Amino acid sequence: MQELLYTVLELETWNRRATCDFCPGLNKAVCQIRTRSKLTDKIVSNSCSCEECKEKFENDELPKCSNCGRLETKDNFFKGKHVCDCIRYNEDIEEKELPSLPHEQRQTAFYERQINGLREELATAEEALEIEREEVAKFQEKSEEWSKRQKQELLDKIKSLEEKIKQLEEENNLLKGQQNGQVAQIEVKENKRWSWLKVKK
User: Fold this and answer.
1) Residue 12 and residue 19: Cα distance in Å, rounded?
2) Number of domains comprising the chain
3) Do 111 and 65 share a domain, yes or no?
4) Whole-number CA gyration radius for the chain
5) What pLDDT is stored for residue 69 in this prediction?
6) Which of 68, 97, 126 is the last residue of a domain?
7) Strand ranges, E, within 70-193
8) Are residues 110 and 199 in the same domain?
9) Which residue stretches of the chain have pLDDT < 70?
10) Alpha-carbon torsion, ordered 173, 175, 179, 180, to 10 deg
11) Is-contact 76 47, C-beta < 8 A?
């Protein structure tokens, strides 16, 4: 099977009224999907696609031929089933052409490779950004959990300290009461002693 390069391009001016080559209805095409041989730079297929089929292509959901790798297009002769041109036209799928030399390479093929390279970079960057967003979301979630846990720990500590303060105040009041009782007893004893001394004199 030959290696193929798929490129999504804007519809050419003369093809603006085209319908989708992939779905059974007459859906309006919004782009074309050009398929080019990586070996020879030769265009092996140029199909029009509606928005829905474009999304399917981007998600690798459009059927591809198991013989040549091209995207299968609808065919009325086969009652709307997807059929590849290699079957429709009974093509010889063996690559017989020699690779194109640098000076023979088509300018359009060069730009298509550039477009695909940039799209791959964009997809990689978007994927990396999505991973970064997920990591940030996880970090925020963990941070919130940690913050809640810290807050709860502080609240528990405050409650514990308040209870301890209350307990210490009660103990202090008890000690004060005992101390006042002892002072009163001492005063009574002192009064008795002074009274006794006065009587003795």
Assistant:
1) 13
2) 2
3) no
4) 44
5) 83
6) 97
7) 73-75, 81-83
8) yes
9) 1, 75-82, 89, 92-106, 183-201
10) 20
11) no
State which of 51, 68, 97 marks the end of a domain: 97
Both structure tokens of 117: 């390279």
Expressed as residue numbers, the domain containing 114 is 106-201
Residues 122, 60: Cα–Cα separation, whole Å: 17
Residue 145 has a pLDDT of 87
**What is the rounded CA–CA span in Å between residue 113 and residue 117?**
6
Gap between the Cα atoms of 112 and 43, Å rounded: 11
pLDDT of residue 49: 92
> One-letter amino acid identity for 151?
K
My answer on whether 83 and 156 are in the same domain is no
pLDDT score for 106: 66
C-alpha 8: how far from chain center: 25
Tens of pLDDT, residue by residue over 106-152, are 677 778 888 888 888 888 899 899 999 999 998 888 888 888 888 88
Q: How far apart are CA 62 and CA 55, in angstroms?
A: 9
Dihedral sign from CA coordinates of 89, 93, 97, 99: positive
